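User: Modeling request: complex.
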Amino acid sequence: MTEILLSLREVSMHFGGLKALDKVSFDLCNGEILGLIGPNGAGKTTCFNTVSGVYRPTSGEIRFGGIRTDGLPPHRMAALGIGRTFQIVRPFPNLSVLDNVIVAMGLPCYRGIIPSCGSWKRQTTRDGAMGLLSKVGLDSLASQKAGLLPLGNLRRLELARALALNPRLLLLDESFSGLRHEEIAMQEELVRKTRESGISILLIEHNMRVAMGLSDRLVVLDHGLKLAEGSPEEIRKNPEVIQAYLGKGGNSNAA
Amino acid sequence: MSDYTITIGTFIAIQAIVACGLNVIVGYAGQISLGHAAFFGIGAYSSALLTTAGGLSFWSALPLVLFITGFIGLVLGLPSLRLKEDFLAITTIGINFIVVSVFLYVPFFGGALGIGGIPRVILFGERLRGTPFLFLCLAFLATVQLASWLFTRSWSGLACFALREDESAASSMGVSPVRFKLAAFILGTAMAGLGGALYAHFMRFISATDFGFPMSVMILSMVVLGGMGTLWGPVLGALVLGMLPEVFRPLTEYRMFLYAALLLLMIRFQPGGLLGESSFARQIFSRLKGGNQE
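Assistant: Request completed. Predicted assembly structure:
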Protein backbone atom coordinates (compact mmCIF):
# COMPACT_ATOMS: atom_id res chain seq x y z
CA MET A 1 0.00 0.00 0.00
CA THR A 2 1.16 3.48 -0.83
CA GLU A 3 0.53 6.54 1.27
CA ILE A 4 -2.94 7.33 2.61
CA LEU A 5 -4.72 10.28 1.00
CA LEU A 6 -8.02 10.32 2.86
CA SER A 7 -8.76 8.77 6.19
CA LEU A 8 -11.95 8.68 8.22
CA ARG A 9 -11.67 7.78 11.90
CA GLU A 10 -14.83 6.89 13.82
CA VAL A 11 -16.84 9.46 11.91
CA SER A 12 -20.41 9.82 13.15
CA MET A 13 -23.13 12.01 11.77
CA HIS A 14 -26.38 12.22 13.70
CA PHE A 15 -29.50 14.04 12.60
CA GLY A 16 -31.46 14.29 15.81
CA GLY A 17 -31.99 10.66 16.82
CA LEU A 18 -31.05 9.26 13.43
CA LYS A 19 -27.54 7.90 13.21
CA ALA A 20 -26.85 8.38 9.51
CA LEU A 21 -23.21 7.45 10.11
CA ASP A 22 -22.07 5.57 13.17
CA LYS A 23 -18.32 5.46 13.84
CA VAL A 24 -17.28 4.77 10.29
CA SER A 25 -13.57 4.41 9.63
CA PHE A 26 -11.76 3.71 6.39
CA ASP A 27 -8.74 4.86 4.41
CA LEU A 28 -8.27 5.72 0.79
CA CYS A 29 -4.79 5.35 -0.66
CA ASN A 30 -3.20 7.52 -3.28
CA GLY A 31 -4.14 6.42 -6.79
CA GLU A 32 -6.88 4.11 -5.65
CA ILE A 33 -10.51 3.77 -6.73
CA LEU A 34 -12.51 3.07 -3.61
CA GLY A 35 -16.17 2.14 -4.01
CA LEU A 36 -18.72 2.99 -1.37
CA ILE A 37 -21.75 0.73 -1.63
CA GLY A 38 -24.74 -0.19 0.44
CA PRO A 39 -28.52 -0.42 0.27
CA ASN A 40 -30.70 2.70 0.11
CA GLY A 41 -30.42 4.82 3.23
CA ALA A 42 -27.14 3.23 4.27
CA GLY A 43 -25.44 6.62 4.73
CA LYS A 44 -23.34 6.73 1.57
CA THR A 45 -24.29 10.23 0.52
CA THR A 46 -24.03 11.47 4.11
CA CYS A 47 -20.54 10.04 4.20
CA PHE A 48 -19.74 11.93 0.99
CA ASN A 49 -21.12 15.14 2.38
CA THR A 50 -18.99 14.94 5.50
CA VAL A 51 -15.90 14.40 3.35
CA SER A 52 -16.74 17.24 0.96
CA GLY A 53 -17.53 19.64 3.78
CA VAL A 54 -21.30 19.98 3.37
CA TYR A 55 -21.82 18.53 6.87
CA ARG A 56 -19.69 18.87 9.95
CA PRO A 57 -19.54 15.37 11.48
CA THR A 58 -21.04 15.00 14.96
CA SER A 59 -17.85 13.30 16.06
CA GLY A 60 -14.77 11.69 14.60
CA GLU A 61 -11.89 12.84 12.52
CA ILE A 62 -11.38 13.25 8.78
CA ARG A 63 -7.92 13.78 7.38
CA PHE A 64 -7.15 14.67 3.80
CA GLY A 65 -3.51 14.66 2.72
CA GLY A 66 -2.54 14.67 6.39
CA ILE A 67 -4.57 17.80 7.20
CA ARG A 68 -7.56 17.57 9.50
CA THR A 69 -10.51 18.72 7.44
CA ASP A 70 -13.73 17.86 9.27
CA GLY A 71 -15.78 21.01 9.67
CA LEU A 72 -14.18 22.92 6.81
CA PRO A 73 -16.75 24.40 4.37
CA PRO A 74 -17.08 22.97 0.82
CA HIS A 75 -15.20 25.82 -0.87
CA ARG A 76 -12.19 25.17 1.33
CA MET A 77 -12.30 21.47 0.53
CA ALA A 78 -12.31 22.34 -3.18
CA ALA A 79 -9.22 24.47 -2.63
CA LEU A 80 -7.51 21.59 -0.81
CA GLY A 81 -8.04 19.37 -3.85
CA ILE A 82 -11.38 17.60 -3.61
CA GLY A 83 -13.61 17.67 -6.67
CA ARG A 84 -17.10 16.23 -6.61
CA THR A 85 -20.16 15.44 -8.68
CA PHE A 86 -23.73 15.35 -7.43
CA GLN A 87 -26.20 12.48 -7.26
CA ILE A 88 -28.87 14.80 -8.63
CA VAL A 89 -26.97 16.79 -11.26
CA ARG A 90 -26.42 20.43 -10.45
CA PRO A 91 -25.38 22.29 -13.58
CA PHE A 92 -25.46 26.10 -13.79
CA PRO A 93 -28.47 25.96 -16.13
CA ASN A 94 -28.33 29.46 -17.61
CA LEU A 95 -24.59 29.44 -18.26
CA SER A 96 -23.11 27.85 -21.36
CA VAL A 97 -21.49 24.44 -21.11
CA LEU A 98 -18.10 26.10 -21.56
CA ASP A 99 -18.75 28.69 -18.84
CA ASN A 100 -19.83 25.90 -16.50
CA VAL A 101 -16.31 24.48 -16.76
CA ILE A 102 -14.67 27.91 -16.59
CA VAL A 103 -16.34 28.52 -13.20
CA ALA A 104 -14.33 25.60 -11.83
CA MET A 105 -11.14 26.83 -13.50
CA GLY A 106 -11.35 29.97 -11.38
CA LEU A 107 -10.55 28.00 -8.23
CA PRO A 108 -7.13 29.61 -7.68
CA CYS A 109 -8.62 33.08 -8.28
CA TYR A 110 -11.49 32.94 -5.78
CA ARG A 111 -9.28 33.09 -2.71
CA GLY A 112 -7.73 36.54 -2.99
CA ILE A 113 -9.36 39.88 -3.62
CA ILE A 114 -6.92 40.95 -6.34
CA PRO A 115 -6.95 37.71 -8.38
CA SER A 116 -10.75 37.59 -8.19
CA CYS A 117 -10.84 40.96 -9.98
CA GLY A 118 -9.01 39.47 -12.97
CA SER A 119 -10.85 38.66 -16.17
CA TRP A 120 -12.17 35.16 -16.90
CA LYS A 121 -12.59 35.89 -20.59
CA ARG A 122 -9.02 35.01 -21.53
CA GLN A 123 -8.11 32.76 -24.41
CA THR A 124 -5.89 30.50 -22.26
CA THR A 125 -8.74 29.89 -19.80
CA ARG A 126 -11.09 29.18 -22.69
CA ASP A 127 -8.63 26.78 -24.31
CA GLY A 128 -8.13 24.93 -21.03
CA ALA A 129 -11.87 24.51 -20.58
CA MET A 130 -12.29 23.41 -24.19
CA GLY A 131 -9.58 20.82 -23.65
CA LEU A 132 -11.49 19.36 -20.71
CA LEU A 133 -14.74 19.39 -22.67
CA SER A 134 -13.19 17.49 -25.54
CA LYS A 135 -11.82 14.98 -23.02
CA VAL A 136 -15.37 14.19 -21.95
CA GLY A 137 -16.74 14.53 -25.48
CA LEU A 138 -18.82 17.67 -25.03
CA ASP A 139 -16.72 20.09 -27.09
CA SER A 140 -19.34 20.28 -29.83
CA LEU A 141 -21.92 21.50 -27.29
CA ALA A 142 -19.68 24.12 -25.66
CA SER A 143 -21.85 27.12 -26.53
CA GLN A 144 -25.16 25.48 -25.55
CA LYS A 145 -26.90 26.41 -22.36
CA ALA A 146 -26.20 23.70 -19.80
CA GLY A 147 -29.86 23.56 -18.77
CA LEU A 148 -30.79 22.17 -22.17
CA LEU A 149 -28.52 19.12 -22.00
CA PRO A 150 -29.83 15.60 -21.40
CA LEU A 151 -28.79 13.71 -18.27
CA GLY A 152 -25.98 11.72 -19.85
CA ASN A 153 -24.25 14.88 -21.04
CA LEU A 154 -24.81 16.59 -17.72
CA ARG A 155 -23.10 13.74 -15.87
CA ARG A 156 -20.08 14.18 -18.14
CA LEU A 157 -20.24 17.95 -17.72
CA GLU A 158 -20.09 17.50 -13.95
CA LEU A 159 -17.06 15.30 -14.40
CA ALA A 160 -15.37 17.93 -16.57
CA ARG A 161 -16.11 20.61 -13.98
CA ALA A 162 -14.69 18.48 -11.19
CA LEU A 163 -11.56 17.78 -13.26
CA ALA A 164 -11.13 21.50 -13.96
CA LEU A 165 -10.40 21.92 -10.25
CA ASN A 166 -7.22 19.86 -10.70
CA PRO A 167 -8.24 17.72 -7.77
CA ARG A 168 -6.20 15.09 -5.95
CA LEU A 169 -9.37 13.25 -4.99
CA LEU A 170 -12.53 12.95 -7.01
CA LEU A 171 -15.83 12.13 -5.32
CA LEU A 172 -18.36 10.59 -7.69
CA ASP A 173 -21.88 10.38 -6.29
CA GLU A 174 -23.77 7.87 -8.43
CA SER A 175 -22.29 9.23 -11.62
CA PHE A 176 -23.71 6.32 -13.56
CA SER A 177 -27.32 6.36 -12.49
CA GLY A 178 -29.92 7.06 -15.13
CA LEU A 179 -27.50 6.40 -17.99
CA ARG A 180 -27.91 4.12 -20.98
CA HIS A 181 -25.59 1.13 -21.53
CA GLU A 182 -23.31 2.92 -24.00
CA GLU A 183 -23.17 5.98 -21.76
CA ILE A 184 -22.16 3.85 -18.80
CA ALA A 185 -19.33 2.32 -20.82
CA MET A 186 -18.16 5.77 -21.87
CA GLN A 187 -18.32 7.07 -18.29
CA GLU A 188 -16.41 4.01 -17.00
CA GLU A 189 -13.70 4.67 -19.55
CA LEU A 190 -13.49 8.30 -18.38
CA VAL A 191 -13.18 7.27 -14.76
CA ARG A 192 -10.37 4.80 -15.60
CA LYS A 193 -8.52 7.46 -17.60
CA THR A 194 -8.90 9.90 -14.73
CA ARG A 195 -7.31 7.45 -12.34
CA GLU A 196 -4.48 6.82 -14.78
CA SER A 197 -3.78 10.56 -14.75
CA GLY A 198 -3.03 10.22 -11.04
CA ILE A 199 -6.32 11.26 -9.43
CA SER A 200 -7.70 9.07 -6.66
CA ILE A 201 -11.41 8.35 -6.73
CA LEU A 202 -14.05 7.67 -4.13
CA LEU A 203 -17.29 6.58 -5.76
CA ILE A 204 -20.78 5.77 -4.61
CA GLU A 205 -22.46 3.33 -6.93
CA HIS A 206 -25.73 1.45 -7.02
CA ASN A 207 -24.94 -0.46 -10.17
CA MET A 208 -23.07 -3.46 -8.76
CA ARG A 209 -21.50 -4.44 -12.05
CA VAL A 210 -19.97 -0.97 -12.40
CA ALA A 211 -18.91 -0.74 -8.76
CA MET A 212 -17.28 -4.19 -8.80
CA GLY A 213 -15.66 -3.57 -12.15
CA LEU A 214 -14.13 -0.19 -11.38
CA SER A 215 -13.17 -0.30 -7.72
CA ASP A 216 -9.89 -1.62 -6.36
CA ARG A 217 -11.52 -1.95 -2.97
CA LEU A 218 -15.03 -1.59 -1.64
CA VAL A 219 -16.48 -0.31 1.61
CA VAL A 220 -20.00 -1.51 2.42
CA LEU A 221 -22.26 0.62 4.60
CA ASP A 222 -25.59 -0.42 6.08
CA HIS A 223 -27.72 1.66 8.44
CA GLY A 224 -24.80 3.99 9.07
CA LEU A 225 -22.42 1.20 10.08
CA LYS A 226 -19.46 -0.10 8.15
CA LEU A 227 -20.40 -3.66 7.31
CA ALA A 228 -17.38 -4.82 5.39
CA GLU A 229 -14.30 -3.68 3.54
CA GLY A 230 -12.20 -5.48 0.97
CA SER A 231 -11.58 -6.36 -2.64
CA PRO A 232 -14.61 -6.86 -4.92
CA GLU A 233 -14.02 -10.63 -4.72
CA GLU A 234 -14.12 -10.66 -0.92
CA ILE A 235 -17.19 -8.46 -0.82
CA ARG A 236 -19.03 -10.62 -3.31
CA LYS A 237 -18.60 -13.64 -1.03
CA ASN A 238 -19.22 -11.86 2.27
CA PRO A 239 -22.36 -13.38 3.85
CA GLU A 240 -23.21 -10.22 5.84
CA VAL A 241 -23.19 -8.13 2.67
CA ILE A 242 -25.42 -10.60 0.87
CA GLN A 243 -27.75 -10.54 3.83
CA ALA A 244 -27.88 -6.73 3.88
CA TYR A 245 -28.82 -6.62 0.25
CA LEU A 246 -31.10 -9.63 -0.02
CA GLY A 247 -32.34 -10.20 3.50
CA LYS A 248 -31.98 -13.38 5.54
CA GLY A 249 -31.72 -16.50 3.44
CA GLY A 250 -33.35 -19.87 4.00
CA ASN A 251 -36.82 -18.42 4.14
CA SER A 252 -39.24 -19.08 1.30
CA ASN A 253 -39.99 -15.39 0.68
CA ALA A 254 -36.29 -14.55 0.31
CA ALA A 255 -36.11 -16.42 -2.94
CA MET B 1 -34.22 71.30 -24.21
CA SER B 2 -36.78 72.70 -21.83
CA ASP B 3 -36.19 72.70 -18.08
CA TYR B 4 -38.97 70.14 -17.78
CA THR B 5 -37.24 67.66 -20.08
CA ILE B 6 -33.91 68.18 -18.35
CA THR B 7 -35.44 67.58 -14.93
CA ILE B 8 -37.10 64.35 -16.07
CA GLY B 9 -33.88 63.30 -17.78
CA THR B 10 -31.85 63.89 -14.63
CA PHE B 11 -34.31 61.88 -12.54
CA ILE B 12 -34.13 59.03 -15.02
CA ALA B 13 -30.32 59.07 -15.08
CA ILE B 14 -30.13 58.99 -11.26
CA GLN B 15 -32.69 56.20 -11.00
CA ALA B 16 -30.85 54.28 -13.71
CA ILE B 17 -27.67 54.43 -11.59
CA VAL B 18 -29.56 53.06 -8.57
CA ALA B 19 -31.23 50.39 -10.72
CA CYS B 20 -27.83 49.30 -12.07
CA GLY B 21 -26.71 48.85 -8.47
CA LEU B 22 -29.72 46.67 -7.73
CA ASN B 23 -29.07 44.72 -10.91
CA VAL B 24 -25.66 43.69 -9.56
CA ILE B 25 -27.34 42.25 -6.45
CA VAL B 26 -30.51 40.78 -7.97
CA GLY B 27 -29.52 40.15 -11.57
CA TYR B 28 -25.92 39.04 -11.26
CA ALA B 29 -25.77 37.48 -7.80
CA GLY B 30 -29.44 36.38 -7.68
CA GLN B 31 -30.05 37.79 -4.20
CA ILE B 32 -33.49 39.34 -4.03
CA SER B 33 -33.52 42.77 -2.37
CA LEU B 34 -36.68 44.76 -1.74
CA GLY B 35 -34.94 47.42 0.31
CA HIS B 36 -32.60 49.02 -2.17
CA ALA B 37 -34.07 52.50 -1.59
CA ALA B 38 -32.58 52.35 1.93
CA PHE B 39 -29.09 52.54 0.44
CA PHE B 40 -30.19 55.21 -2.02
CA GLY B 41 -31.29 57.14 1.08
CA ILE B 42 -28.11 56.42 3.03
CA GLY B 43 -26.11 57.83 0.11
CA ALA B 44 -28.31 60.92 -0.10
CA TYR B 45 -28.28 61.58 3.64
CA SER B 46 -24.56 61.04 4.10
CA SER B 47 -23.73 63.33 1.17
CA ALA B 48 -26.22 65.94 2.43
CA LEU B 49 -24.82 65.87 5.96
CA LEU B 50 -21.19 65.87 4.86
CA THR B 51 -21.71 68.88 2.59
CA THR B 52 -23.95 70.91 4.94
CA ALA B 53 -22.98 70.13 8.54
CA GLY B 54 -19.60 68.68 7.52
CA GLY B 55 -18.73 71.60 5.23
CA LEU B 56 -17.11 69.35 2.60
CA SER B 57 -17.47 69.84 -1.14
CA PHE B 58 -19.43 67.30 -3.19
CA TRP B 59 -16.22 65.89 -4.62
CA SER B 60 -14.41 65.36 -1.33
CA ALA B 61 -17.58 63.95 0.23
CA LEU B 62 -18.23 61.49 -2.61
CA PRO B 63 -15.55 58.88 -1.73
CA LEU B 64 -16.73 58.99 1.89
CA VAL B 65 -20.34 58.57 0.76
CA LEU B 66 -19.45 55.52 -1.32
CA PHE B 67 -17.47 54.09 1.58
CA ILE B 68 -20.25 54.70 4.10
CA THR B 69 -22.98 53.17 1.92
CA GLY B 70 -20.79 50.23 0.98
CA PHE B 71 -19.83 49.70 4.62
CA ILE B 72 -23.44 49.81 5.83
CA GLY B 73 -24.22 47.44 2.96
CA LEU B 74 -21.55 45.10 4.32
CA VAL B 75 -22.83 45.31 7.90
CA LEU B 76 -26.47 44.77 6.92
CA GLY B 77 -25.62 42.22 4.25
CA LEU B 78 -23.58 39.97 6.52
CA PRO B 79 -26.54 38.66 8.52
CA SER B 80 -29.15 39.10 5.75
CA LEU B 81 -27.33 37.15 3.06
CA ARG B 82 -27.42 34.01 5.17
CA LEU B 83 -31.11 33.94 4.38
CA LYS B 84 -32.54 32.84 1.07
CA GLU B 85 -35.31 33.91 -1.26
CA ASP B 86 -38.55 34.85 0.54
CA PHE B 87 -36.79 35.32 3.86
CA LEU B 88 -34.15 37.54 2.33
CA ALA B 89 -36.87 39.57 0.59
CA ILE B 90 -38.72 40.15 3.87
CA THR B 91 -35.50 41.02 5.71
CA THR B 92 -34.55 43.60 3.09
CA ILE B 93 -38.04 45.16 3.35
CA GLY B 94 -37.40 45.37 7.08
CA ILE B 95 -34.06 47.07 6.51
CA ASN B 96 -35.81 49.64 4.32
CA PHE B 97 -38.38 50.49 6.99
CA ILE B 98 -35.79 50.68 9.76
CA VAL B 99 -33.52 53.00 7.78
CA VAL B 100 -36.44 55.27 6.89
CA SER B 101 -37.58 55.48 10.51
CA VAL B 102 -34.06 56.24 11.68
CA PHE B 103 -33.98 59.18 9.24
CA LEU B 104 -37.44 60.23 10.39
CA TYR B 105 -37.05 60.02 14.16
CA VAL B 106 -33.40 60.76 14.89
CA PRO B 107 -32.99 64.54 15.20
CA PHE B 108 -29.44 64.32 13.78
CA PHE B 109 -30.99 63.48 10.39
CA GLY B 110 -33.38 66.42 10.49
CA GLY B 111 -36.43 64.37 11.49
CA ALA B 112 -39.60 64.95 9.52
CA LEU B 113 -38.22 68.22 8.15
CA GLY B 114 -35.43 66.45 6.30
CA ILE B 115 -32.27 68.26 5.26
CA GLY B 116 -32.33 71.43 3.21
CA GLY B 117 -29.82 73.88 1.85
CA ILE B 118 -27.69 71.20 0.19
CA PRO B 119 -25.14 73.00 -2.03
CA ARG B 120 -24.94 72.49 -5.76
CA VAL B 121 -22.11 70.48 -7.27
CA ILE B 122 -19.23 72.71 -8.32
CA LEU B 123 -17.07 71.54 -11.23
CA PHE B 124 -14.24 73.69 -12.67
CA GLY B 125 -15.59 76.65 -10.69
CA GLU B 126 -19.06 76.27 -12.23
CA ARG B 127 -22.17 75.59 -10.19
CA LEU B 128 -23.79 72.74 -12.07
CA ARG B 129 -27.50 73.05 -12.77
CA GLY B 130 -29.77 72.13 -15.63
CA THR B 131 -28.05 70.57 -18.62
CA PRO B 132 -24.50 70.44 -17.15
CA PHE B 133 -25.82 68.55 -14.12
CA LEU B 134 -27.68 66.16 -16.42
CA PHE B 135 -24.42 65.51 -18.23
CA LEU B 136 -22.67 64.93 -14.90
CA CYS B 137 -25.31 62.32 -14.03
CA LEU B 138 -24.94 60.70 -17.44
CA ALA B 139 -21.15 60.57 -16.99
CA PHE B 140 -21.64 58.82 -13.66
CA LEU B 141 -24.15 56.47 -15.27
CA ALA B 142 -21.54 55.61 -17.89
CA THR B 143 -19.01 54.93 -15.10
CA VAL B 144 -21.48 52.68 -13.31
CA GLN B 145 -22.19 50.81 -16.55
CA LEU B 146 -18.46 50.38 -17.11
CA ALA B 147 -18.06 49.05 -13.56
CA SER B 148 -20.95 46.61 -14.10
CA TRP B 149 -19.43 45.45 -17.38
CA LEU B 150 -16.03 44.91 -15.79
CA PHE B 151 -17.71 43.04 -12.94
CA THR B 152 -19.39 40.59 -15.32
CA ARG B 153 -16.00 39.87 -16.87
CA SER B 154 -14.19 39.36 -13.56
CA TRP B 155 -13.85 36.08 -11.67
CA SER B 156 -15.93 37.66 -8.90
CA GLY B 157 -18.72 38.23 -11.41
CA LEU B 158 -18.53 34.67 -12.68
CA ALA B 159 -18.55 33.42 -9.08
CA CYS B 160 -21.75 35.42 -8.52
CA PHE B 161 -23.38 33.95 -11.63
CA ALA B 162 -22.49 30.49 -10.38
CA LEU B 163 -23.97 31.25 -6.95
CA ARG B 164 -27.14 32.55 -8.59
CA GLU B 165 -27.48 29.36 -10.62
CA ASP B 166 -26.65 26.80 -7.93
CA GLU B 167 -25.08 27.60 -4.60
CA SER B 168 -24.06 24.04 -3.65
CA ALA B 169 -22.40 23.40 -6.98
CA ALA B 170 -20.65 26.78 -6.87
CA SER B 171 -19.24 26.20 -3.41
CA SER B 172 -18.00 22.75 -4.41
CA MET B 173 -15.92 24.65 -6.99
CA GLY B 174 -14.19 26.86 -4.47
CA VAL B 175 -16.64 29.79 -4.54
CA SER B 176 -17.22 31.08 -1.02
CA PRO B 177 -20.94 31.97 -0.96
CA VAL B 178 -20.64 34.60 1.78
CA ARG B 179 -17.67 36.38 0.25
CA PHE B 180 -19.05 36.79 -3.25
CA LYS B 181 -22.62 37.58 -2.26
CA LEU B 182 -21.20 40.30 -0.04
CA ALA B 183 -18.97 41.58 -2.84
CA ALA B 184 -22.05 41.98 -5.06
CA PHE B 185 -23.98 43.55 -2.20
CA ILE B 186 -21.25 46.09 -1.45
CA LEU B 187 -20.82 47.02 -5.11
CA GLY B 188 -24.59 47.34 -5.59
CA THR B 189 -25.15 49.41 -2.45
CA ALA B 190 -22.22 51.70 -3.26
CA MET B 191 -23.82 52.38 -6.66
CA ALA B 192 -27.08 53.20 -4.88
CA GLY B 193 -25.08 55.54 -2.64
CA LEU B 194 -23.70 57.33 -5.69
CA GLY B 195 -27.24 57.76 -7.01
CA GLY B 196 -28.31 59.06 -3.61
CA ALA B 197 -25.53 61.65 -3.53
CA LEU B 198 -26.50 62.93 -6.98
CA TYR B 199 -30.14 63.01 -5.94
CA ALA B 200 -29.37 65.07 -2.83
CA HIS B 201 -27.42 67.68 -4.78
CA PHE B 202 -30.04 67.77 -7.49
CA MET B 203 -33.06 68.22 -5.21
CA ARG B 204 -31.08 70.24 -2.63
CA PHE B 205 -33.71 69.16 -0.12
CA ILE B 206 -34.30 65.59 0.98
CA SER B 207 -36.62 63.89 3.43
CA ALA B 208 -37.02 60.30 4.58
CA THR B 209 -40.17 59.63 2.57
CA ASP B 210 -38.22 59.90 -0.70
CA PHE B 211 -36.49 56.61 0.16
CA GLY B 212 -39.37 54.47 1.36
CA PHE B 213 -40.49 51.02 0.36
CA PRO B 214 -42.46 52.25 -2.72
CA MET B 215 -39.17 53.56 -4.11
CA SER B 216 -37.57 50.13 -3.60
CA VAL B 217 -40.43 48.50 -5.48
CA MET B 218 -40.06 51.09 -8.24
CA ILE B 219 -36.33 50.35 -8.62
CA LEU B 220 -36.92 46.61 -8.62
CA SER B 221 -39.64 47.07 -11.27
CA MET B 222 -37.11 48.93 -13.43
CA VAL B 223 -34.64 46.06 -13.18
CA VAL B 224 -37.28 43.40 -13.85
CA LEU B 225 -38.89 45.34 -16.68
CA GLY B 226 -35.61 45.98 -18.45
CA GLY B 227 -34.20 42.51 -17.87
CA MET B 228 -32.50 41.18 -14.76
CA GLY B 229 -28.85 40.35 -15.22
CA THR B 230 -28.50 42.24 -18.51
CA LEU B 231 -26.16 45.20 -18.83
CA TRP B 232 -28.60 47.68 -20.39
CA GLY B 233 -31.85 46.32 -18.93
CA PRO B 234 -31.92 48.50 -15.80
CA VAL B 235 -31.17 51.63 -17.85
CA LEU B 236 -34.00 50.85 -20.27
CA GLY B 237 -36.29 50.02 -17.35
CA ALA B 238 -35.49 53.35 -15.68
CA LEU B 239 -36.13 55.12 -18.98
CA VAL B 240 -39.49 53.46 -19.56
CA LEU B 241 -40.77 53.75 -15.99
CA GLY B 242 -39.41 57.29 -15.71
CA MET B 243 -41.15 58.45 -18.88
CA LEU B 244 -44.47 56.63 -18.50
CA PRO B 245 -45.88 58.90 -15.76
CA GLU B 246 -45.13 61.87 -17.99
CA VAL B 247 -46.67 60.25 -21.06
CA PHE B 248 -49.73 59.26 -19.08
CA ARG B 249 -50.02 62.66 -17.42
CA PRO B 250 -53.38 63.40 -19.06
CA LEU B 251 -54.63 60.12 -17.61
CA THR B 252 -53.43 60.72 -14.04
CA GLU B 253 -56.46 58.97 -12.57
CA TYR B 254 -55.77 55.76 -14.49
CA ARG B 255 -51.98 55.84 -14.14
CA MET B 256 -51.67 53.09 -11.58
CA PHE B 257 -54.10 50.96 -13.56
CA LEU B 258 -52.00 51.35 -16.69
CA TYR B 259 -48.85 50.52 -14.74
CA ALA B 260 -50.36 47.32 -13.45
CA ALA B 261 -51.64 46.36 -16.89
CA LEU B 262 -48.20 46.98 -18.38
CA LEU B 263 -46.45 44.86 -15.76
CA LEU B 264 -48.94 42.03 -16.25
CA LEU B 265 -48.42 42.14 -20.00
CA MET B 266 -44.67 42.04 -19.41
CA ILE B 267 -44.91 39.00 -17.16
CA ARG B 268 -47.11 37.26 -19.72
CA PHE B 269 -45.14 38.03 -22.87
CA GLN B 270 -41.61 39.02 -21.85
CA PRO B 271 -40.87 37.28 -18.57
CA GLY B 272 -37.13 37.82 -18.95
CA GLY B 273 -37.54 41.59 -19.31
CA LEU B 274 -37.36 43.83 -22.37
CA LEU B 275 -33.71 42.95 -22.98
CA GLY B 276 -33.75 39.51 -21.40
CA GLU B 277 -33.01 36.32 -23.24
CA SER B 278 -35.67 35.27 -25.76
CA SER B 279 -37.12 38.80 -25.63
CA PHE B 280 -38.37 40.41 -28.84
CA ALA B 281 -35.50 42.90 -28.79
CA ARG B 282 -32.91 40.13 -28.51
CA GLN B 283 -34.53 38.07 -31.25
CA ILE B 284 -34.58 41.01 -33.64
CA PHE B 285 -30.99 41.85 -32.75
CA SER B 286 -29.73 38.32 -33.31
CA ARG B 287 -31.68 38.11 -36.58
CA LEU B 288 -30.01 41.32 -37.78
CA LYS B 289 -26.66 39.97 -36.70
CA GLY B 290 -27.35 36.67 -38.48
CA GLY B 291 -28.43 38.57 -41.58
CA ASN B 292 -25.15 40.44 -41.68
CA GLN B 293 -23.15 37.26 -41.57
CA GLU B 294 -24.93 35.67 -44.51
